[in-house]
């Protein structure tokens, strides 16, 4: 059986497990929901019933920025409000696009489609959002799926949660559930049209948009509203993450709206802005980079994420014997990750779990915010001469391949063996350190955006010709990108000394002495 | 035949091709034009799909785009294998790295030098 089919079956099973016992609520009317970022917004009756179903409600228990709340205490916002925010932005974006194009470019039915796709775009997230996604992405069975998806959908390589959301929208279990919602609605013209057009083909289109795919190239701009270079997802998470975490990030969304347009290149019609919207677009792209520096790549955020990853790998590797009256956390397949939300992994009742003792220790450390610390780091500015070794920068790549896991393990073992040669009694083990080699933000799909000269013109210029986004990213890499070695508190001094030697011996990377003070290691 | 199956192998493979491309050339510059660069490697993949299977391209938009290629070039930059010329950043300089042959031997011993030269001659960057 193909992986696509096998995963679809597992997702159907998961959906049955959460939806079968929760029949849809009867939607009374449209509802007004207040949001601290985008204000007051209306949701249609069928959306309200969907919002109230367990599939959307579970997003209330998944933090939008993973474990960033351990560093930025107010960053406790969740995937739930983000999903509502994206839906609101879709509405605004469609209104402006229609107004800029001076016609009903996107009709009402398509607007409903886009709103549904926005509401559902993140339902495939599992605990701590991207953190757990990075763990199951290392499973060979997920890589096989990714290859199949890539072959089937024009070479796209979507993220794990996007693929799961895609499968959920394509699921017959979900579609039947939604049909029940619509049949419960009081008949109006809108409800009637929803009932008519939400057939299998249309659900497939909606699902495709979540992974950035459009079968018809003329409709690519629709997919790009949901998943594209400046989609509503980015517009929401940048504003929301900044507002809740604290850093002041500003971009001129009104200006951006007024310059929105579409551009035809051959058969493809893409979402774009006109030249007068460049500054607003620059603000959005630079804001994204600032957020990496402020929040996503903050060393304490990375260290807490490292701890959750460590915990997951322990749970994946160690099969505990069954114990009566104990709660088991099973992570043997990527779809298993969907069964758990943040509160399960950070439960103060973890003593009741049938999991290894060292896993319980990590949970307690996270609950009490006793985070791992920096034992060393590598960056463009703290290497004596030369740069990072290419084998090191790709050390965390393709960890579904046994040889690569072996290489990473060997590197860690070398550090531990060096630790033992410094102090034979040091109790630290390989599992107590974590090598973190993050990816710097890249220009990825933004690089191929073409900007329209004006609303009335069909001429265009590549975005990178008028705004050197690549140069900004280069500067980020030189000044901000860091790869850390995290370790348990109290061992940073010995890990620094040991890893410094191993970096030099293995990768000819000579760490500058001031690195120690950067890591706040006492001399 | 063994194939290039992992990111690390692909990274060494692409560096190997660039290394051969610039072998014996005084001017070690290539285009920073995103579209041109991605199209060149896409065409190379079209000619030799077996070798470039791991280099995936998203063809669902205005031109073929490879996340892998972007990511590999980003790694090259972090490692100093390439750098971009100020102030326009429209030209990339290939510096190479001394350890390439050792890494090639470890990662892709099944790709021989002649094959790399053949791919390099087909490249127009």
Count of distinct strands of chain B:
3
The greatest interface between two protein chains, and residues involved on each side, is: A-B, 47 and 40 residues
Looking at this structure, what is the CATH superfamily of the largest domain in chain A? Hypothetical protein af1432
* Residue share in β-strands of chain B: 5-15%
Number of domains of chain B: 1
Distance between the termini of chain A: 59 Å
Please summarize the sheet with the most strands of chain A: 3 strands, antiparallel
The percent range for helix content of chain A is: 40-55%
The count of helical stretches of chain B stands at 5
In total, how many beta strands of chain A?
9
Oligomer: heterodimer
Please give the CATH architecture of the largest domain in chain A.
Orthogonal Bundle
- Largest sheet strand order of chain B: 1-3-2
- Relative helix content of chain B: 40-55%
Radius of gyration from the alpha-carbon trace of chain B, in angstroms: 14 Å
What is the CATH architecture descriptor of chain B? Answer: Orthogonal Bundle
Distance between the termini of chain B: 28 Å
Q: How many individual helices of chain A?
A: 24
Based on secondary structure, the structural category of chain A is: mainly alpha
Please tell me about this protein's structure.
The complex is a heterodimer of chains A (523) and B (125). With 523 residues, chain A is mainly alpha-helical. Helix content of chain A is 51%, strand content 9%. Chain A has two domains: 3-215, Hypothetical protein af1432; 299-440 and 481-518, Up-down Bundle (Growth Hormone, Chain: A), CATH 1.20.1250. Chain A has helices spanning 3-19, 45-51, 54-57, 79-100, 108-120, 130-136, 140-152, 160-170, 172-184, 189-197, 200-210, 220-226, 232-245, 253-258, 278-296, 299-317, 342-345, 357-367, 390-393, 402-422, 463-466, 469-479, 492-507, 515-518, and strands spanning 31-35, 39-43, 260-265, 268-273, 373-379, 433-436, 450-452, 460-462, 482-487. A three-stranded antiparallel beta sheet of chain A has the order 5-9-6. In chain A, strand 1 and strand 2 (39-43) form a beta hairpin. In chain A, helix 4 runs antiparallel to helix 5 and helix 13 crosses helix 15 (278-296). Chain A is globular. Chain B is mostly helical and 125 residues long. Chain B has one domain (7-122): Arc Repressor Mutant, subunit A (Orthogonal Bundle), CATH 1.10.10. The longest helix of chain B has 16 residues, at 7-22. Chain B starts with 6 loop residues before the first helix and ends with a helix. The interface between A and B is large, with 47 and 40 residues.
